[in-house]
Amino acid sequence: MSVDCDCAGVEAEEPTISDIGILASTDIFAIDQASCDLVYSAPDGKDLIERIETRQGLRQLSATRELKMGNPQYELINLD
């Protein structure tokens, strides 16, 4: 995954974190929480974590909690 937005297109920085997989859920809070947890637990996630934290990227999770827009609890099920 790149630290840049998809909208950067071919100008986006090269990825510095390995593929964390594809996640799916019907719960917006659970999917965002799981995605962040995977990034934060990735051994090579330093660059992306820095980008998240320097741009208030975790605000989405706190706003979702405040608005009661789902549940942050989740279970990852591997379909491989």
Question: Top keywords for this entry?
Answer:
80 residues
Number of strands: 0
Shape descriptor reads globular
Helix content: 25-40%
The largest pleated sheet is described as: none
Radius of gyration: 13 Å
Order of helices and strands: HHH
Oligomeric state, counting identical vs distinct chains? single chain
Proportion of residues in β-strands: under 5%
- Our count of helices gives 3
Whole-number average pLDDT?
92
Low-confidence stretches: none
> What distance separates the N and C termini?
20 Å
- Determine the structural class based on helices, strands and strand pairing: mainly alpha
Q: How many domains, as an integer?
A: 1
Write the layout of secondary structure elements.
Elements: H1 28-41, H2 46-54, H3 59-66
Task: Please provide a written account of the structure.
With 80 residues, this protein is an all-alpha fold. It has one domain. 39% of the residues lie in helices and 0% in strands. It contains 3 helices and no strands. Helix 1 packs antiparallel against helix 3 (59-66). The radius of gyration is 13 Å and the shape is globular. The model has no long low-confidence stretch (mean pLDDT 92).
Task: Give me a quick take on this structure.
With 80 residues, the protein is mostly helical. It is built from three helices and no strands.
